[in-house]
Amino acid sequence: MSEHAGRVSARADLFGGFAWMAFGIAIVAGSLVMDRLEQFGATFYTAPGLVPGVLGATITVLGLLLVIRSLKTGAVAGLASPWAMTAQGRSSLTRASVATALSLVYTLGLVGRVSFPVATALFVFAFIMVFDVSASAPSRIARRATIAAITAVATSAVVTLVFERIFLVRLP
After folding, report:
1. Cα distance between residue 36 and residue 38, in whole Å
2. Other CB atoms closer than 10 Å to residue 130's CB: what's the count?
């Protein structure tokens, strides 16, 4: 790996580490404002915000470790040089943006407006079609779409049953 590539990677780790830290802190803040359910006799260890809070704190610490590692490997030294994105980096950014957009459509557009199993099946089907079928030959798209539909319905059914029957969570 060239010195420039090492600096770019370290710089990406620096920004990524700060992003993970912000995400972890947001999770911890959200878990702290959750209802503790004390009126139902819930203890500290059964409070709904405990697991998300621990996970958020862990994400924050791991983000901090990523920042520290990036600083040790020269992230700050590379900030003055331009950051040229490679073709692979652009492809990864595009895929991450599409995945984020699909997730936002699912969470903000479908969940709560359409029944949960239908919303989940549509999301899984769309995700598979976008990320799997786009790489397939046109002659195989019908077969892939059938497999995607079966996978989407099965995933939706399993997720719905697990949350409603095992975790006893009412779904929107």
Report:
1. 5
2. 15
Predicted confidence (pLDDT) per residue in 58-103, tens digit? 999 999 999 999 888 877 775 655 656 678 778 888 999 999 999 9
What digits encode the pLDDT tens for the residues 9-37? 888 888 999 999 999 999 999 988 888 77
> With contact defined as beta carbons under 8 Å apart, do 47 and 34 qualify?
yes
Query: What is the per-residue DSSP string for 116-138?
Result: HHHHHHHHHHHHHHHHTGGGS-G
* Residue 29, number of CB atoms within 10 A of its CB: 11
Closest CA to 11 of 63, 65, 67, 61: 67
Domain boundaries, the chain: 1-84, 86-172
Q: Please, are residues 160 and 117 in contact by the beta-carbon 8 Å criterion? A: yes
CA 166 to chain centre: 24
Handedness of CA 99, 167, 172, 157 (dihedral sign): positive
Query: Can you list the pairs that 57-60 forms with residues at least 24 positions away whose Cβ atoms lie under 8 Å?
Result: 57/24, 57/28, 58/24, 59/20, 59/21, 59/23, 59/24, 59/27, 60/20, 60/21, 60/24, 60/25, 60/28
